[in-house]
Amino acid sequence: MGSFKDKQLPQRWVLYVFGIFLISLGASFNVVANLGVSAMQAPPLVLSIVTGLSMGTCLFLVLALFVLFQILVLRKKFQWISLAQLVVSFLFGYFMDFSLFLVGSLTPSSYLQQLLLFGIGTILSVNGLLLYVQANLITMPPEGLTIALTKKIPNSKFHRIRIVQDSSLVVIAVVLSLFLLHGVYGVREGTVLSAVLIGKLLPYAGRLWRPVLRRIGMEPEMVG
Fold first, then answer.
1. What string of DSSP letters covers 15-53?
2. Residue numbers in the chain where pLDDT is lower than 70
3. Confidence (pLDDT) at 210
4. CA 162/CA 172 separation, integer angstroms
5. Where along the chain do its domains lie?
6. Is 81 left (phi over 0), alpha (psi -120 to 50) or beta?
7. For the chain, how far is it from start to end, CA to CA, in angstroms?
8. Which of 26, 57, 116, 162 is disulfide-compatible with 121, CB 3.0–4.6 A?
9. Whole-angstrom Cα distance, residue 53 to residue 103?
10. Which pLDDT tens digit goes with each residue over 41-70?
11. What is the DSSP letter of 83?
């Protein structure tokens, strides 16, 4: 991450909140596309179907568990300022429910339409992720847990821990849906495509936002 001057703090918060909203909007498109959601969103989706709670509520509860796991992993080394992740998680959950309210009525009638909605969702998520990371503010709970595990496990690498973490979330979602819903929900080809496409599309999003970011004194960091 780059360093920013204090005068850029308002712009960073705008980028941060807008980025989280775009991620939630993209996730909502993926939900209605019904081709599978990202690893992080798969367990909340299954829990939402099982319990009848809103997707946003279940997302907040799962993210709160990530914060709890950070406390268990780091123990005395956990910085209590990191509890601000709960506030961000609540905001993310709220945006998720609001986004589903906006696009939830969309009902694709063909696989082509499903792919179209999934593509829109992926593009929105990529742009949201770029802005969220670029803002360089509060870390979301999944990244926070990955960082905590990287610090705790000797000779571990962030990307390797993240792969294991995301894979575990997919497995949990599949197991829960099989046992509680007698079928697989939330995990399909779109789950794999999201994992592959988002990283590859980030540099293009960086180029797209480069003029805006430079105008407010920031240099996009994920431009290939």
1. HHHHHHHHHHHHHHHHHHHTS---TTTHHHHHHHHHH--
2. 1-7, 219-224
3. 85
4. 15
5. 6-215
6. alpha
7. 15
8. 26
9. 18
10. 999 999 999 999 999 999 999 999 999 999
11. G
